[in-house]
Every structure is written in C-alpha cells, then in structure tokens.
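Hey, why these numbers?
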Amino acid sequence: MNVREAAAALLATESERPPLSQDWPDLDVDTAYAIQDEALRQRRARGETLIGVKLGLTSRAKQQRMGIDAPLLAWLTDAMVLPAGVPVPSLIHPRAEPELVFVLGRRLSGPGVTAATALAAVDRVYGGMEIIDSRYTDYRFTLPDAVADNGSSAYFALGPVGVPPASLDLSLEAALLEVDGQIVDTATGAAVQGHPAEALALAANTLATRGLALEPGWLVLTGGMTDAVPLNPGSRVAAHFSHLGSVTLSA
C-alpha cells in the first residue's frame, strides 16, 4: 500500500478495519502525515474546503489511556461542521469530547511560537464539542495510525458564545460533560497542555516543520478537555462551559 492508496482506503472506510501498521509495520509519523495530506487533497477534490486544524491527544491522561506519548495535528474541513440542532450522522463508533476552540484573527507562523504570541493571534474563543470516530477496530492504534486517520476526525459543533480570549482565564475555564442528564466528567482548560494556548503554539510550530502556518479565520480545536464518551444511538451528550454556554448533541 502506498500513500495515495492508504488515504483513499481510510476515506472510504464505513466499518472497523485493522490499523494500517498491521500490514505496514514500518509506517512512521512523517509518512502518516503524508497520508493525512493526501486525504485532505482528495477531500478538497470532492468539494470540501479547508477551515482549520485540530489537535488530538493533548491531555496527558488521554495519552496514557491510548498508549501514545505525543499530541498530533489533523485537518478540519467544512464537511465536518455540525450545525446546531442537527443529529450526529451514523458513524462507526462515535465518541464525544468537550474542547476549547480558537478562531484566528491573523496568521500564526512558527517556529518559535509561544503561548503568549499564539494567544495574541486569536480573535475569539468558543466552547465546542468534537465527535471522533476512529476507523480502526476497538480504537486500537499507534501514533502513526492515528495521524494517518486524521486524528479520528468526524464532526464538531461550536457553542453559542464567542469572546476575546483576554476576557477569560482559559486555564480555569471549566466544562461539565453530561450524558443523558447525568454529569459524567469535568475538566478545565489546564487539562489541555497546561493551557490551551500551549496547544495552539504547538499547532503553529508543528505546521512550521512542514512549511505551513495557521491562517486568518481558521478554527483550531485544541484537544479534548475530558476523556471522550461513547455517543450511542438515542443518547444526548452536552458540554456546559463556565462562560462559553453549552453545546448539546444527539445521536
């Protein structure tokens, strides 16, 4: 299997499949990002528009649970936006997690971006919810597998409240995760690399190694604040933020 074939196979997957590394044991992170980029090219060829990036595995607790020791970066397109009130489409094994989402006001280019310089490039911050959906059986994968699969991307939704980041202490901004009326988890922005601006700086510096930058108007999903919870048929999952309103999704 080559890069183009791997990208096409992952895009076409509608049920669980073995991770790429099972048949491609020397798959490395650089090749995985090439697969991810090729999948983006194929998405754009079918009419999707690039609108930003997401970070995955930015929480140390989640890294430990997944057996992976580094965050990853993935692409966002307009086809991944879930409008308010629209049920989550049928997926393989969807999970939901609350996130803090930045909207960039100006270009942010590494290397050497710090959390402070990253935050200065942000126009607004929102609460959000991401729906992840790994193509791999039982969510078992290596870091290169996860990168090639575009960070298990499926859909995301933004909350109703967007504010300038200077108006909040983002490390203390809390999210309560509710499933079918029961609070099942809670976290603050500090769960995301110590501060979500650190995740934003990581995104800019990671893209710089590939000759890329974060562009004005792009959205950046900074990573799950809590662990992701299954979104089962008939379920309702909500994230309630301290100052950024609530996001509710149903299957």
Observations:
- Residues 112 and 205 are 7 Å apart (CA to CA).
- The first helix runs from residue 3 to 12.
